[in-house]
Each structure stands twice: as C-alpha cells, then as structure tokens.
Amino acid sequence: MKKLDDLNKSFDEFMAEDSFDKGATQRVKLTDDQKPSAPQRRKPNTPSRQASAPQQPGRKKKPVMSRKDRNTVIALFSVAGVLLIGIIIALCFILSGPADNELILNNVYVAGVNIGGMTQAQAKSALSDVAKNYEQLSMVVKVLDTEVSLTPAGTGAKLDINAVVKAAYDLGRAGSKSEQDKAQNATSHNLSILPYLNLNTEYIQKAVDNFGEKYSTLQSDPTIKVEGESPLGSSVDPTDTEKVYQTMTIFMGTAEYDLSTTALYQQIMDAYDSGIFEVVGQCSVTPPNLSILDELEKAFKQHCKAPVDADIDENFNVTAEVYGYGIVMEEVKDMIASAKYGETLEIPMTFVRPDITAEDLAGNLFKDILGAYVLDVQADNNLISNLKLVCKSLNGLILKSGETFSFNELIGETTRQRGYKPFSQFVGKVYTENYYGGGISQAASALYTCVLQADLDVLERHNHAYVPTFILPGMDADVLYGSRDLQFKNTTDHPIRIIAEYKNGKLHIQLLGTDTKDYTVELKFVTDKVYDPVTLLQTMTANNAGGYKNGDILQTPISGCDVSVYKVCTPKPAEPEEGEDGEEIQPTVPSEPEEVEPLEVFVGQSHYDKRNVVMVSIYTPSVNPTEPSESTEPSESTEPSEVPTESIDPSENTNPTEN
Using alpha carbons only, how large is the chain's radius of gyration in Å? Predict the structure, then answer.
C-alpha cells in the first residue's frame, strides 16, 4: 500500500509541474474580451512576426503536452496502480493465508477422540459412538457412601455432531488473523463440547444441591440411653431369652462435612466435556469427638452382664453355665459398623444364653472319635510299667479349642525318682541299655497317628533314627525330654479329650471331640527310596578276648528308607434332612452320581538311616620262621573296617528293641 501511495504522489507532482521553467510568466484567467481571436496559420519566419515579437536570447520553450497525451498518461498510471494493488493483495494472501486442504487441523480432540487430520465426514463418523454414549449412559456421581445417577432423560444430553465438527473445522480458518495463527501453531486442541450437548444445567445443579444438603451437618457426639427396668438381681427365669426387659437406644452422632458444591458441579461438567461418566466428589469428614465403641463399653459395664460358658474343671467335673443379660456385644458392634452418622439404633435387652451349657458338654461334646490307634506292646514288664505311667498322665486330659499340647511338658523328665523303669533302646543312633523311661515314644507315636486322623495342626514332630518296628514308617514320633518333643494344636471349635489306656497287652489311644468335618481322613505312606545295608568285617585273631568265632554277628542290619506320609480326605455322603413332620428327607441321588476323587494332603517325609551288618572275620597270621611272630589283639574301635561283601543272614539276630 505504501508503494501505491508513493505512485499517486508522483503522478500528482507531475501534473502540478508547469510547462515552463521557474522564470516563465504565470497564467491568468482572461475575460472574453481579453481572449485572443483564433490564431491564423502563419508562414514561418515572416518579417512582421520578427518585428512584433523580439526574441529573447538564451531561453527555449518546453514543449506543451496536449490534452490527449495527458489523458493517455493518466490512463496508463491508473492501470498500473490497479495492477500493482492487485499484485500486492495477491502476494499478501499467498504469504499469509494457509493452503486449505479441506482437513481439520492435526490433534484436535473432542471428548477424548482425536479427529485431527480428518475430513468433516470422517470426523462425524468417528464421533458417532461418542454421541450414542451421551444419549445412553448415565453420569454416576459418588460422594462418600451416596451415589446418584444423572440419566440422559434428565440431563437432556445430546451431542450435535454437525455443529461440533464444524467448530473443529473452523479452527485455524475463522476469527482474526492472530487467532488463526495461534490455532495453526498449537500442537493440539481440546475442543469443548459443552456448547453442543444441550445439557439441562438446572437438573444437574439440583442434584448437586441435594448432595450439599446431605453433607452439610454439624458435628455432634453419640449418645447411649437405656430405658426400662433391669431384671438383674430379681428371681426371673434367665433361660427365657425372648422376653424384652429394657431397650438400649444408640444415637450414632453426626460428623461435620466439608463438600464444595461449586467444585462438584465443575467436576460433573468437566466429566461431560471429557466423555467420562463417573465422578467422585471430594468431601472431608470430621467425626464426632467421642468414640461410639467407648460409650458402648461404658453402657455395657453399667447395665449388662456377659454370659459364662459351662466348663470342665481339673477333676473333669462340669461347671454350670451362667446366663448373661443385656446385649450380645459382638452383634451390636456389627450393627454399629454398618450404621451411618445421624442414625439411631434401638436394641432390645434380654437374657443371653451362653455358647456352651452343661447340657452341651454332657450330650454333644466328646461324642465323636476323631482319631484312634491300638498298639501291640512287647511283653516287657519295665516297658509296660513306663507306658502305664504315661497313660496316667494322658488319660482324661482336655485340650480346649485353640490350645497347644506338648508331650514333654505333660510327661516331664522320665527319672527313676518319678517311678520310671529302665528299658534298653536306641537314643538317637546309640543303643543304650537300661535307659530310664525307655519305650514312651511308642505312646507318643500312637498319639501322633491319632492327631493326623483328626486333621489337627502338628507343630513339632521327629522321626526315629532307624525304621521303627512297633508302628508303620512315617507314623512314629521320637521324644526325648529337653530336645525332641511332640506338639500339636486343637484347631477345632470344641474341646478334645484324650483317652489313653493299657489293657491286655495293647496300648489304646483315642481323641474324643465334636466332628464337624464334612470329610473323613485316612493315612497312607509311600516309600520313596530304600537304603540297603552292607556287610562290614571286623577282623580278629582266633584267640580274641571275646571268644568270637568266624561269622559271628556283632551288629544286626537295619534297612534305611525315605517315606512320605499323606492324609487322604474323602467327602462324607450327604446326610438326610428333616422335614416339617420330623421325617427324614433323603437327598436326591442323580442317575449317574458324580465321582469325587479323594484329596491327598502331603504331611511330610521321614528319613531313616541304614544300619550295616558287622561280622567277625578270624585272621590267622602267617608265621615267619626267621622272625618271631607278634600277637595281634582284636580291634577295640567302635567303627569296624568297612569291607563290603554280600549280605549274610546271621544265625542269631540280636536286633535290639527300639524306643
């Protein structure tokens, strides 16, 4: 435009310039009388002209431009100006305007969908599912434990796809030059669709206001009141647990809430704008100053009495139960946990039956055999005497639910002063003669087998060093006071009584309790590996101090092995149900009953060492006539030289009895 102004200015200056030089006479306007008559053509160089108009020396006249020439120049300059203006406008448009490819700018997002780089038709197709969501999905608004759904029918949500796509297409095309430049230079655009959703904001605001009214309470402390006359101390029948004597009223108190309805409303609108249909409002809660549970404990001590279960004393006598009164504390705590602030609970106060009564103990407890084992006992008076002492400690022992049993803690140290007899046995791998209390591991092993049958938790158990001969491998339990113990826990909901008796050469162990399992337990063991003993020779001279002969057995063999024990759990058959008239209703048996395979539960693995044969080999030294022979005494080492040979069955088996 500046160039065009300069051009017009030059043209005006040109037109204003006089045909004569600065010294020429200025033109004046003449009247009609003063105007000269039409000039007549004169012949050049006539004498009269030369005489009338004297010539001025040194000055020449500029040629005078005709009107036609002047109009031509003006026309040329006008055309040139118009062309120049057109060129300038075209250049400005080319340099400043975008090359329109009919596509939406890149990275334009609408409700989380990128429609950048698409045509308008493509963008409409891409937003079709989004539009359906607004018409079909409800906006779920949650504040604490309250949830409200804003339905499409209530909000009127309906996306105008044509309008929102047109708005996306206009980015970088509409608006001022600076607005277009800003849109074209941005890396991404999040186009708000709220103007194109047709939302009923009054409906949304009303829902928000309802939240605000609910969570606008002030803080107040809980209260507990008891109304009515207490029966405690009177002669009323406590077994009547239906009659209501008093009522406990519990007011939960109120908390102070801090919910910003303005922020919640903005959250909802932002969610609509983003195509998200769930909002969780932020609301702080200041609970009451007093604890409702503390107040409940105070009220219970003041107005109630806890029930006492029937029990069994140290002499196995049943102590009677004591009925409680008021409320069942655990039940009320559960009610409080599910109640809300501002809620009032009314709880009837009655007599409360204990969980276990004397009748329960006499009739239902100890009615089932949870585990039983009978052990054949070697006819040795000392062994029998030791087992009888153990039975005296075990028999009648009651193990309460959750209680732990320790064999060593119950039996104690098996000393001569406590009446135990000597009995030869292995203590570890060492064969010990006249060991006081020997053989009591047989009672521990029988008890351990019963514990496995009852499916109780075994806390500690040790197997013997060598395979036991009095019980199956893997079922034994080696005990030694101060080092090896048998411990288990009563994991049932009822007490367990131990029965231990010796009669007619047999040791009887039983666990009595209440069987609530829906399966039976059987035990099995699997031999994983066998370790065969070998024969070791102990060389001696013919005149040895022990008088041993060639082939005598100094140590009998015992095979070693690894044994795994499993509990095989088989589901019990369904028990018949009782009808209204008391008759049994047999369960429906399908035409093809489903076979349920027993479940095998791994108990543990026991490792038993092997014990090699030690045999005497008589050695006869060769006599050198030139040198005197030296006598060779038999070796006193407890470790015989390991010279393996094929196994030899000894004529006399001196296998010692094991614990």
Answer: 58
